[in-house]
UniProtKB/TrEMBL annotation:
UniProt key word Nucleotide-binding: yes
Family label: Belongs to the ABC transporter superfamily.
Keyword Lipid metabolism among UniProt keywords: no
Record organism: Nocardioides panacihumi
Domain ABC transporter: start-end pairs: 4-235
Record keywords, A-Z: ATP-binding, Nucleotide-binding, Transport
Domain of life: Bacteria
Pfam families in alphabetical order: ABC_tran
Protein name (database record): ABC transporter ATP-binding protein
Molecular function GO labels: ATP binding
Length: 289
């Protein structure tokens, strides 16, 4: 059974449609959610985390309907959620903050709870700062603290909203290892703007745009859609949708190549740019006609 099944899901904030007719299934492994600002990624993740109810369609998480109290409670017992933005209560240390959340997650035995708190702090490389006050931590350390609480109890469903934002490269590398291990058994869904994290970690990618699913499939299949559309040249090419001078001094072009172009292997970022760029072009053509 899939861990998550969304069918025809819609969500609006007033007159602003955030999601329109989203249908997708998620099972064990790591799925990356990409999309431009405002595409609806956080809205989907909040629905998966039972923090927000859909207006339309059906939502099933672990077979449960989160609209019912018992359904929500069951899901929450198996859920780890790292939201995009978090407030921290004043006065907590890193350890006491995670311990407090572990108590809310029904870890009543202090001995096993403290062991688990130490385990998740170690996973995100915060063991050294466990006694430090949260207010004295750096932005990246606070981000990792949010991740630590999501990992409490090895949840079956891990919902992470931009988990690598603001982390230094070493911490991102370490986090990839933690998430890769979690994805061996759990259903992990990650929203991010970092295509290289998705390429490095995920088996599957979902691209959202203006509340709709533009692509849902394997990374290799999305990348292959950009084959023959990325090339290098000495100057910026007029047929390129995106072009930038690289560190070598040559220009990387992404778009429709001229006949004599020196084609190169596309990366996930190229394929993503083309997918979202082509969708925007189609939208412009439709609204002009
Ligand atoms: N609380 C809210 N009230 C009104 N509109 C909202 C609210 N939250 C989100 N929206 C709108 O819903 C749409 C989807 O927002 P959402 O935060 O889900 O996108 P996102 O893909 O996560 O964006 P980003 O990459 O910028 O984080 C946007 O148009 C946004 O302005």
């Amino acid at each position: 059974m899939n861990t998550v099944a969304l069918s025809g899901v819609g969500k609006s904030y007033g007159r602003n449609t955030a999601l329109a007719d989203v249908t997708l299934d998620l099972g064990p492994g790591i799925t990356g959610l990409l999309g431009p600002n405002g595409a609806g990624k956080t809205t989907i993740l909040r629905i998966l985390a039972t923090a927000l109810a859909a207006d339309q369609g059906t939502v099933r998480i672990m077979g449960e309907d989160p609209r019912s109290l018992t359904g929500r409670t069951t899901v929450r017992r198996h859920l780890g959620y790292a939201p995009q933005e978090t407030g921290f209560p004043r006065g907590f240390t890193a350890f006491s903050f995670i311990d407090y959340l572990a108590i809310l997650k029904e870890w009543s035995d202090a001995g096993t709870r403290h062991e688990e708190v130490r385990r998740v702090l170690e996973l995100v490389d915060l063991a050294d700062v466990a006694p430090k006050r949260v207010g004295a931590l750096s932005g990246g350390q606070r981000r990792r603290l949010v991740l630590a609480q999501a990992l409490l109890g090895r949840p079956d469903l891990l919902v992470l909203d931009e988990p690598t934002a603001g982390l230094d490269p070493a911490q991102r590398g370490r986090l990839r290892d933690v998430l890769g291990q979690a994805g061996e058994s759990a259903t992990v869904v990650i929203s991010t703007h970092q295509t290289e994290d998705v390429a490095a970690l995920c088996e599957r990618v979902i691209v959202l745009d203006r509340g709709q699913v533009l692509f849902d499939g394997r990374i290799v299949d999305l990348v292959s859609e950009a084959a023959g559309r990325v090339w290098m040249s000495d100057t910026r090419q007029p047929t390129a949708q995106y072009a930038w001078r690289t560190g070598t001094g040559r220009v990387r072009n992404v778009g429709d190549p001229p006949p004599d172009a020196e084609l190169i292997e596309p990366a996930l970022e190229d394929a993503y740019l083309l997918l979202v760029g082509d969708a925007a072009d189609d939208e412009r053509l439709e609204s002009a006609s």
